[in-house]
Amino acid sequence: MTRPDEGATGRRGPSWWPAVVAVGRARPGLAAVAVSTTLLSAAVPALFIILSGTAAGLLARRDDGSAGSLGLVVAAMAVVLALSQLSSMIRSDVLEALARQMDMVLRRRLIEAVARPVGLGHLEDPRLQGRIATAHGLANRLGGPAGGLLGVTGRIQVLLTAVGCVALLAWVDPVLAAVSGTLHLVVGWWLRDNYRQLLHHLHLDPGALRRGHYLRDLLLRPGAEKETRVFGLGRWLLGLHHTEWLRVSTAAWQGRRIAWWKIAAGAVLLGAGQAAGIAVLADDWQDGAVSLAALVVGVQAGIGLLQFAAVTEWDRLAHIGWDAVDALVEVEDAVRPAGPTGDRDPGAAPLREIELRDVSFSYPDGTQVLHGISMTVPAGGSLAIVGRNGAGKSTLLKLLLRSHEPTSGEILVDGVPLRELDPQRWRSRLATMTQNFVRLPLTVRENVAGPGRATDARTLAAVAAQSDLDTVLADLPHGWDTVLSPQLAGGTDLSGGQWQKVALARGLHALRTGATVLALDEPTANMDIEAERAVYDAIIDATREHTLLLVSHRFATVRRVDRIVVLDAGRIVETGDHATLIQQGGLYAQMFDAQAAIVR
Ligand SMILES: Nc1ncnc2c1ncn2[C@@H]1O[C@H](COP(=O)(O)OP(=O)(O)OP(=O)(O)O)[C@@H](O)[C@H]1O
Questions:
Q1: Residue 215: which of 247, 237, 230, 242 has the closest Cα?
Q2: Which of 389, 403, 408, 442 is the S-S candidate for 446 at Cβ 3.0 to 4.6 Å?
Q3: For a pocket test of ligand 1, which of 125, 359, 394 has the largest count of ligand atoms closer than 8 A to its C-beta?
Q4: Strands 416-417 and 408-413: what pairing?
């Protein structure tokens, strides 16, 4: 695997060509037009050289017949010029279409790759995040995978033009063609290699830029605007952003200085080669070894050899495109599942219970969060997990959702290991509301039922009543069809507690449309006390025939569930119902008393 900071100098070819071939196969007609117009565009300079050589020869003859022939040659030049204009217009349109196709195919591959793993650990891997950004073309504002197709075809055209020039020069002076062609090829290869390194320095590492982008977004995007203004952080953040850019770009500029002298040396070599070539041709002409027509052809073809060495916009686009496809292949390799992911249908599970057997878990950074957790959640029952901040409560829910896999131990659903169940079907059994629930900039209806899903008015009305969302809907200008985003025309925003009601309604809607377990992480943290009480009554009612898993610090509500598990530093320290735990006088009783004392 290439490291992200190897950027544009990474692996070449093998990843790229299958992607180009796939696009060609998908749109064979367009691909054929692209190839033929590229060949025509590449041939135009050679045709012009031949025609101008012919014109020079005719002018040198100065006989009566030459004027008519000259007119024909000029007409032919006009036709070639018109054809080349037409061809390049068609070519650029066709290549744009193919590039868009390629972009679509590669983006789909990227999205599928990122969605493939059962867990979400890869989304927390900063190195992989950098490669995902590169594959998406987001890491580089100068180009992306689609630009690569334009770059490569442009590059091929330039090389074909140079090959045509070698052939013409060989017709005039084969030895000069061999010597000059080799010089331009070698220097061209050297210059392009240098350019790759230069690009590597300019192609700023997305990982290194992330901090800078984050600081910029704090200033430009909604979200942190209140804090930045209230605490007067604007100038300070701007300064930090500037320092961050300087830090990343200084390394780029240093690398750039190294490359420039090599480019200058290459230019001197090529200049000397060109001058020597023209001098040889001029000598040949003066000696009468070549005609004026051949001299004109030879000089122009010799200059045309510079195309071998030309480092153009196409090279930059091609390298960035190559790197994007390399990054995509790396992402695909990295997320390839190591073993089977499970394909058993969970049916209406859990029918008996969910069991955690000696489950331990560490996050990828090595932090061990859960230690030997063993507990049973009876199907159709209600269980609350309580504990201090950071005890591991939300992490336990993440394991149930299979966002992460236990490091050791096992989770069983009706006796079947969770890892043997089809992850998608298992997740559809779970109606969840996490602390970081998603706030979709869509309508209330879409936030509750899911974008593009069919809705049933009675189900929506029922979940709105259970989640207290109906009190919010009553004040919204378009009810269920109100767009929840102040950034969109006609949209509005909700308060924290109102958003929580939307998220809860989403969970309850899922419960009414196929889910069997309602897993809630602090579902009422922002609600007022009346709403909280009403919502909890409704939740208990809604889950009479379902399983309820609740993570909460609110003891007034926790006390109402069948069983409570108390976590402390990733270990179960107490289990029982409210009365038993209070009687035990342990951590639960301490936390309950502390909260009651605040309320009193
Ligand atoms: N993605 C992560 N990578 C590394 N450590 C993490 C990650 N997410 C959480 N942790 C750590 O795991 C521990 C448990 O976090 P968790 O969110 O499960 O606690 P919690 O009991 O739900 O806390 P709270 O009551 O504050 O919501 C914490 O110490 C936290 O710092």
A1: 237
A2: 442
A3: 394
A4: antiparallel
Give the number of the atom of ligand 1 that is nearest the alpha carbon of residue 551.
22
Pocket test for ligand 1, best of 369, 437, 573 (most atoms within 8 A of CB): 369
Q: What are the two backbone dihedrals, phi and then psi, of residue 547, each rounded to the nearest 5 degrees?
A: -100, 135
pLDDT (0 to 100) of residue 185: 92
Residue 134 CB partners (closer than 8 Å, separation 6+) = 4, 7, 140, 206, 323, 324, 327
Selection from 69, 6, 19, 362 nearest residue 200 by Cα: 6
Q: How many residues does the chain have?
A: 600
Residue 203: the pLDDT is 61
Q: CA 17 → CA 99, 138, 229, 316, 322, distances in Å?
A: 14, 22, 50, 17, 9
In 302-381, the DSSP E strands lie at 353-362, 368-378
pLDDT at 10: 44
Q: How far apart are CA 76 and CA 92, in angstroms?
A: 24
**Ligand 1 and 394: CB distance under 6 A:** yes
In this prediction, residue 338 carries a pLDDT of 59
CB 432 within 8 A of CB 520: yes
User: For residues 328 and 109, is the Cβ–Cβ distance under 8 A?
Assistant: yes
Please state, in angstroms and rounded to a whole number, the distance separating the CA atoms of residues 140 and 160: 29
Q: Say which residue the tokens 């790229």 belong to.
A: 16
Query: Which domains, from first to last, does the chain contain?
Result: 4-335 (1.20.1560.10), 344-429+553-600 (3.40.50.300)
Q: Are 149 and 95 in contact (CB under 8 A)?
A: yes
User: Is the CB–ligand 1 distance for residue 34 below 6 Å?
Assistant: no
436 lines ligand 1 (CB under 6 A): no
Q: How far is the CA of 570 from the centre of ligand 1 (A)?
A: 10
120, 122, 395, 552: residue to mutate for ligand 1 pocket, most atoms within 8 A of CB: 395
Q: Which atom of ligand 1 sits closest to the CA of residue 435? A: 27
Tokens of 149: 């197709």
- Are 501 and 527 spatial neighbours (Cβ–Cβ below 8 Å)? yes
Q: How far apart are CA 463 and CA 447, in angstroms?
A: 13
pLDDT of residue 2: 37
d(CA 314, CA 151): 4
Q: Does 390 sit in the ligand 1 pocket, CB within 6 Å? A: yes
Q: Whose CA is nearest to atom 25 of ligand 1?
A: 389
Put the strands of the sheet holding 353-362 in their side by side order: 368-378, 353-362, 408-413, 416-417
Residue 89 alpha carbon to ligand 1 centre in Å: 57
The C-alpha atoms of residue 325 and residue 316 are separated, in whole angstroms, by: 14
Establish how many alpha carbons lie within 13 A of residue 458's alpha carbon, considering only the half-sphere containing its beta carbon: 2
> Which residues, including other chains, have CB under 8 Å from residue 496's CB and lie 6 or more apart?
526
Q: Which two tokens stand for residue 178?
A: 């061999």
In this prediction, the residues of the chain whose per-residue pLDDT falls under 70 are 1-14, 64-65, 138-143, 200-208, 255-259, 337-340, 599-600
DSSP for 272-309 reads HHHHHHHHHHHHHHHTTSS-HHHHHHHHHHHHHTHHHH
Residue 440: its H or E element? none
